[in-house]
Amino acid sequence: MMARVANAGFTLVELVITITVTSIALVAIIYGWSIAAKHSADVTWQARTAYIGQTYLEEILTKRFDENSTSDGRLPCGVGVLGGDTMPACTSAANFGSDGEARANFDDVDDYHGLTEVPLSLLNNIFTGNNNPYGNYSVAVAIAYDTTQINVASMVKRITVTVTPPGNLNPVVFSAYKGNY
């Protein structure tokens, strides 16, 4: 008589169930990795967007309030007399924008109104090919008198810098105020 041999191994049903469970687990893991990879660059573009916005605001805020203000800040534009001198009228909002001058010659805040450009385009000379990390960003600047802070139209200008990162992401808006002093 022959001794009975124990059945060793897996049945076909067990193999199919194991493959199915493993496949479902792998799909879940790969999906999780794809979400993480998709958002891994978010911090980079957010940091670059913040850097660009802050850079433009700082540059604009260093300029004088108005074309008609004195460059030394001694006599602001406005209505009335200050220290015995008659203040010149401030530029009207309809005349904001560059007066045909090159960007390098902007000397007051409202010269930047309507400026749209690719930021830091001068870096194209430093980076070879299309390696400029800021080349796909765009910047738009708007300047307006703001009477919500002080109820006199020529006392405060709101500077709005809109930075659009690459990849059709939502634009990020940065704002600051420049006072007439």
UniProtKB/TrEMBL annotation:
Pfam families membership: N_methyl (PF07963)
PROSITE patterns recorded: PROKAR_NTER_METHYL
Superkingdom, natural source: Bacteria
Keyword annotations from UniProtKB, A to Z: Membrane, Transmembrane, Transmembrane helix
Entries under InterPro entries matching the protein: N_methyl_site
TM region(s), chain numbering: 12-33
The name this protein goes by in its record: Type II secretion system protein
Organism of derivation: Pontibacterium sinense
